[in-house]
Amino acid sequence: MEIILLKDIKDIGKAGEKVNVKDGYARNFVLPRKLGIEATEENVKEWKIQKAKEEAEEAARRAEAMKLKEQIEKLSVNIESKSGEGGKLFGSVTSKEISDSLKAQHKINIEKKKIELKENIRAVGTTTVVVRVYPEITADLKVVVTGK
Question: Which residues pair with 88 in a beta bridge?
Answer without folding.
Answer: 123
